[in-house]
Write a structure and sequence with these properties.
By secondary structure, the chain is of the alpha/beta class. The chain is built from 21 helices and 16 strands.
């Protein structure tokens, strides 16, 4: 892709390619857009940025059909997410009033001279942010359009000329790669904002860095992306020491054994750990694929555009997941979790002892279960990597849409959303931790008990304390990956296939998809 400005004709052509592919973003966790990069103390080698684009809905079925004559055909029929996928708390709808809309993009009308802002999450808290911005900037008008801006709606709106000036919570790299959003390097330089040693961590900026340029202002939900949470009361009741949390997956399994309870009929009454819960389930839209990171390998090489999934580490983590489900039984666990429909599911209500959560976890769970006591610690790693503290840097950013006539005002809004006033609003109403280091140090945690404060502070400082900082692998098929790896995990957990077969099939499926006519680059 050329780095220079696109003509309207070229832009519409590229956007039409997105629309024609039928791309739809999940709209809850935002796109992960950077290969693992190293902090000063990290042992993770950085990869050069490259194109990321979500796979298509059509591709899910087309690749399945294409694979049907292959020995790996059964992989393409893998069912999708486990019941715990719904437990993701990256969406704020469970904890704040939201007004989701099915508005057709062509019907969106914003007065000339008014910033058309698609903030992503359709909660009234985003209107509060817009009102606060206008109070500080009375010459600028902002209209927040409150619905989840999936890729299809965004493409249709841009092509219709009714697209936003500023957008967030989308399949970010679908639009960055196709030249539909603006690089912000010149604006950052003008405002003397550092992307390497400023108030926002370099890791957050790098998550939206492509071909030597920056494409988004990190904002909204940008603390370290995952941590192992555990219910202190349940842990103590099982005779375990909450001040000595598990460090490895073997440790977690020992806790899982002691914390899982069943009735006389073998039905679960309490679950120790679901390894596919919440953050551990994600691969895209603001989140990295955590399992290769915990096992310490890159599953995709952006320079050669090749997957490296069929390997012993993948077999090992599939086997690890299976071991947990063997104890609880997949069907009985699904039945148990189905009962708990609030955000963070059984874990949030105190019926599941452990889970890897998003940074909103401590605050959100406190609103659901104010009498519960929880702690958070580092994501577990295999025993061979014991002692290595890992964290993911991704999350969200505000992007400026190419073609906007209000880029200066849009950039000002983007910076505002990353700043103190907006961060206060979003933290108070939702529990999201903003990107500013100075703001994080001044967060008012007084309304929370000590254990909630510990969790929030852990997520806030973990990007500074981690030995390895990972961001996404720049995988152009990361959304396709999400459904397929989880589907194969479900088959492994039910002993329909073994971990070795799962690794082989996932390698085959991803390679086939990348190279197929439905692949992200076709």
């Amino acid at each position: 892709m050329a780095d220079g400005p696109l003509s309207r004709r070229d832009l519409l052509g590229r956007l039409a390619a997105i629309a024609g592919a039928g791309l739809v973003a999940a709209g809850c966790g935002a796109a992960s857009v950077q290969s693992p990069s190293a902090s000063a103390s990290s042992s993770v080698a950085a990869s050069s940025p490259a194109v990321v684009a979500s796979s298509t809905t059509a591709a899910l079925s087309s690749t399945t059909a294409a694979a049907s004559t292959s020995p790996a055909a059964t992989a393409a029929s893998a069912t999708t997410t486990s019941a715990t996928a719904t437990a993701s708390a990256s969406s704020a709808t469970a904890v704040a009033s939201a007004t989701t809309s099915s508005v057709a993009p062509e019907s969106i009308k914003v007065a000339p001279g008014t910033l058309n802002w698609w903030p992503g999450w359709p909660g009234t808290y985003m209107r509060d942010v817009a009102n606060a911005f206008m109070k500080e900037n009375p010459t600028i008008k902002v209209e927040p359009v409150l619905f989840y801006p999936d890729n299809t709606k965004l493409v249709a709106a841009i092509v219709a000329g009714t697209g936003p000036d500023v957008v967030s919570d989308i399949g970010y790299y679908n639009f960055i790669e196709r030249g539909a959003v603006l690089p912000i390097d010149d604006m950052l330089k003008t405002e003397k904002i550092s992307t390497t040693d400023g108030d926002i961590r370099a890791a957050n900026w790098n998550a939206f860095h492509w071909k030597g340029k920056y494409y988004g202002v990190p904002a909204v939900d940008t603390a370290g992306r995952g941590a192992l949470g555990y219910n202190v009361d349940l842990v103590q009741a099982a005779g375990l020491d909450p001040d000595q949390p598990p460090q490895t997956w073997d440790d977690v399994y020992l806790w899982h054994q002691k914390l899982t309870k069943k009735d006389s009929a073998g039905n679960l009454t309490q679950l120790g750990m679901d390894p596919l819960f919440s953050r551990a389930n994600a691969t895209s839209d603001g989140d990295t694929w955590l399992w290769p990171e915990m096992w310490g390998f890159h599953y995709f090489d952006v320079n050669t555009m090749k997957y490296d999934i069929d390997r012993s580490e993948t077999m090992d983590f599939y086997a690890t997941i299976q071991k947990f489900y063997d104890l609880s039984d997949p069907d009985k666990q699904a039945a148990f979790q189905k009962v708990y429909t609030k955000s963070y599911g059984a874990f949030g209500i105190g019926k599941q002892a452990m889970g890897i959560t998003y940074p909103s976890g401590p605050g959100v769970i406190h609103t659901i279960n104010p009498n519960g006591k929880y702690k958070w610690t580092w994501p577990p790693v295999p025993t061979s990597r014991k002692g290595i503290k890992i964290q993911s840097a991704a999350g969200h950013a505000q992007l400026l849409v190419k073609g906007s006539k209000l880029t200066d005002a849009g950039f000002k809004l983007a910076l505002f959303v990353a700043g103190k006033t907006a961060s206060d609003i979003l933290f108070d109403q939702v529990g999201w931790v903003g990107p500013s280091k100075s703001w994080q140090k001044s967060m008012d945690l007084s309304k929370f008990p000590a254990d909630v404060q510990q969790g929030i502070q852990f997520f806030s400082t973990s990007l500074d304390d981690a030995k390895e900082i990972w961001t996404a692998e720049m995988d152009p098929e990361d959304e396709f990956l999400g459904s397929k790896w989880r589907g194969l995990a479900s088959q492994v957990n039910k002993h329909s296939i073994d971990p070795k077969t799962a690794a082989q099939q996932l390698q085959f499926m991803m390679t086939t998809q990348l190279n197929s006519e439905n692949g992200a680059f076709k």
